[in-house]
Design goal:
This protein is mainly beta and 267 residues long. The protein is built from two helices and 17 strands.
């Protein structure tokens, strides 16, 4: 896990939460068929669902008279639901659809692999196909904002981010039927506290050890049966995680307070 670092984005000073390196998966499948079988419409690649998000940040003024602000992006109405289809193009099932570039060289070396692999119209069987998946989740929090109740500037005090994913290696038939071959649970957590000695200074940043981690589970073979997100992966979706997160960023649940109350981070 890379440390939180100060950055500048569109002229706004803030904290950037990034991994030193993301997750990478390579899946390989061998398809068997008879002479004359048509491969048109068959695809091999990865699906990904995000099924948990924690995303809040608290701000405090330099004095209690300046007040405080709580910004919640992971609870209704800002985020109407937890589970979402994590893809680049809403309605397109494979994670790599719309990605640029559409191929990646594995970190372990070797030739570049495609994110989504369509079968040729007339495949030669047995046909062995490999696809690659890569993701580097992260977020950004501005160092300061204005408290509308007090009219004062308040500064970032604490941030907690949790993103939980399930990534599945699948074969998709022309009619849309999915064959789940392998599945992987993984997550990233950040929790950091910020101390500003004055309005012009850069903050001291301290990671909360129990809230900062990156975890990858074991590979699970076969279909998945997890009611928290299986419907997301197996039925057409009109939106995706990026759209849901973008809406939550633009219209978060916002509490502006006088003084320094303890905010309920579950709401």
């Amino acid at each position: 896990m890379a440390p939180v670092r100060s950055t500048v984005s569109n002229g706004v000073r803030g904290a950037s939460f990034r991994l030193s390196s993301g997750i990478e998966c390579v899946g390989t499948v061998t398809l068997h068929g008879a002479a004359g079988d048509v491969g048109t419409g068959w695809n091999v690649g990865f699906l990904q669902a995000q099924w948990i998000e924690t995303n809040w940040r608290a701000y405090r003024g330099l004095t209690q008279a300046d007040g405080s602000v709580f910004v919640q992006r992971a609870r209704p109405p800002a985020r109407p639901r937890q589970a979402c289809f994590d893809c680049l193009v809403a309605g397109a099932p494979f994670y790599g659809t719309g990605a640029s570039p559409a191929t990646l060289v594995p970190a372990t070396g070797g030739p570049a692999l495609s994110l989504v692999v369509p079968l040729p119209a007339s495949p030669a069987f047995p046909s062995t196909i490999s696809a690659i998946h890569a993701d580097v989740p992260g977020d950004f929090a501005a160092f300061s904002l204005r408290n509308g109740r007090t009219g004062k500037t308040v500064f970032l005090s604490e941030v907690q981010l949790e993103f939980h994913f399930c990534t599945s290696f699948v074969v998709r038939e022309p009619g849309g039927r999915l064959h789940f071959l392998q599945n992987l649970y993984w997550n990233v957590h950040w929790q950091n506290r910020f101390t500003f000695p004055n309005a012009a200074a850069s903050p001291t940043i301290a990671a909360v050890a129990a809230g900062t981690a990156a975890n990858v589970g074991h590979v699970i073979a076969g279909p998945i049966n997890d009611g928290r997100f299986t419907t997301v992966l197996t039925t057409p979706q009109t939106t995706n995680c990026n759209n849901i997160a973008g809406t939550a960023e633009q219209r978060p649940n916002l509490v502006e307070a006088q003084g320094w109350p303890l905010f309920d981070v579950t709401r």
